[in-house]
């Protein structure tokens, strides 16, 4: 079984939390499924849940090279040089990280409001990037964009492999 969930902002990528924070269990009541990979508490978007251990490993293990597409709202306007650095590789504390691709995009037409909204500063522009990765280190997109001078304000995972969050509102899920 495979479930596609649009994980809302400030939801943990686990089913229980002793501190009472929102978890996947608040949205999906299907026994025996586990997240295939993680998505940070302050990130939104597609997370896959499965009861198939082999599929879970294939999706979440770095050796599998599963493509994951992220949309990042960043502070600033990216230059061609900054985008090239994301693909060529930036040095992080845990080694060099490279995107498969990184490009500036328009704000998605299907974008939902976030509660609370991101901070708005009239004197600092923001823009959107599409970043494709084949690995998933802790807070990788945020650390990479910060390393090139484009701090991430909002991060949405749009796809994992061939699965997308198309048609899924925040908190909604469907079987694949």
Walk me through the structure.
The protein has helices at residues 53-60, 80-88, 140-147, and strands at 2-7, 34-35, 44-50, 68-75, 90-92, 95-97, 101-105, 126-133, 152-160, 163-164, 173-175. The chain has 176 residues and is an alpha+beta fold. The protein folds into 2 domains: 1-61 and 163-176, Alpha-Beta Plaits, CATH 3.30.70.580; 67-160, Alpha-L RNA-binding motif (Alpha-Beta Plaits, 2-Layer Sandwich). Strands 1, 2, 3, 4, 7, 8, 9, 10 and 11 form a 9-stranded mixed beta sheet that branches. A hairpin with a 2-residue loop joins β5 and β6. The protein starts with a strand and ends with a strand.
What is the helix tally?
3
Q: How many E strands?
A: 11
Low-confidence stretches: none
Number of domains: 2
What CATH architecture of the largest domain would you give? 2-Layer Sandwich
Largest sheet: 9 strands, mixed
CATH level 4 superfamily of the largest domain: Alpha-L RNA-binding motif
What is the chain-wise order of helices and strands? Answer: EEEHEHEEEEHEEE
Q: How far is the N terminus from the C terminus?
A: 8 Å
Specify the helix fraction band. Answer: 10-25%
**What is the average per-residue confidence, as pLDDT, rounded to a whole number?**
94
Give the C-level CATH assignment of the largest domain: Alpha Beta
What fold name stands as the CATH topology of the largest domain?
A: Alpha-Beta Plaits
Radius of gyration: 16 Å
Alpha-beta classification: alpha+beta
Strand content: 25-35%
Shape field? globular
Q: What would the keywords be for this entry?
A:
14% helix, nine-stranded mixed sheet, 176 residues, Alpha-Beta Plaits, 2 domains, 11 strands, globular
